[in-house]
Amino acid sequence: MTIVSFLLQRRRLLVLGAATLALHYATIDWIGGRLSSESSRPSPQPPSLMSAQLRLTLPKRVESAPEPEVAPLPKKPAPARPRPVRREAPATAPVTTPVSPGPETAASDASTAMAAVVALAGEDINAGQTGTPAPAVAKAEGVVQLPAELTQNLRRYKVNLPPSASFEMTVARVDADGAKWSGAATMAWHTDGGSYRASVEAGVSLLVTRLNLLVLRSEGVIDDYGIAPVTATEKRARRAETATHFNRDAGTISFSASERSYPLLVGAQDKTTVPFQLAGIGRGDVNQFGGDIDIQVGEEKEATIFRFQLVGEEELETKMGKLTTWHLTRPPKPGSYSSQLDIWLAPGMNWYPVQIRNTEKSGALTTQTVSNITMSQPGK
């Protein structure tokens, strides 16, 4: 083989290698363009909330006024029964020769005529005779006047409610005897700025099915104090549904499961709306958590004050990743409620409640932790 042929062969190999390398680069560039175009297509799924790990300075602790006590309203007295009206037969004039009526006869006839008029009007004859007739109808009941000590100790909070969203939650329960249960829950919050709807459905997994243990629903309006419930319902397994009514015209809270009623305080909530009202307080002004947060909560048979205290900032491990939260707690209150309620709010996620835990007096724990949040409307 001559030197010329050797060089020609080497040249062909170099050209072939260069062509192969260029072809590889072209292929990689084409595949990258295809992948980019596929990833830029809009997803048909609803947008999930993007998490921003917002860290805020905790507010300085401020001493709060003594927690107000709310007593049930006195029961309404039973309406008095009207006394029966005695109807006397009108006196008949004798059939004898007519005689001109004297003063006594004229007075008797006038009394008889008055008795007939009073009987037709449904009033008491004696009251009519004494000049102080009883009222025909009861006076309309007025709005309940709150005691001065309640109105003086009430705090008014600045509230900026979070946008609408739906939540998927995991449920973990540990009974007092150590038995463990797992399940799932859904929580929904929807508002158009003037009204709202909220719900919670929680259950446990049993082999191939799920048993709903608790269903809470609440509807109402939005006012200057935040969420203003009108009707709240609660349904537990193997128990009838109960309702709590917030009678804003009368200023009372009443219940389908009890004859009790309570005065309606400003900012009153139900069990479904409490976490979202707390979220609105955080969005309104974080410094409000420097003092205790007092919220009247109507639930099933009573309406008591829940006092929440800020525990501090904590990081939660969830299926959405690690979340920075503010931990609020409502300790047990002797004489009112024996359980402890803890709520974790995420400042970087519209202050949404991302974990809720109930600790019963027996030691049993039920924890709901967020696994996914889907916003149904834009907003911050």
List keywords for this structure.
alpha+beta; 15-stranded mixed beta sheet; elongated
Structural class: alpha+beta
The strand line-up of the biggest sheet is 8-7-6-5-4-3-2-1-15-14-13-12-11-10-9
Low-confidence stretches: 97-101, 103-140
Query: What characterizes the major β-sheet?
Result: 15 strands, mixed
Helix content: 10-25%
Computed over alpha carbons, the radius of gyration is 37 Å
Q: Total number of helical segments?
A: 5
Between the first and last Cα atoms, what is the distance in angstroms? 80 Å
Mean pLDDT: 79
Reading the helices and strands in chain order gives HHHHEEEEEEEEEHEEEEEE
Please provide the count of β strands.
15
Inertia-based shape = elongated
Strand residue content: 35-45%
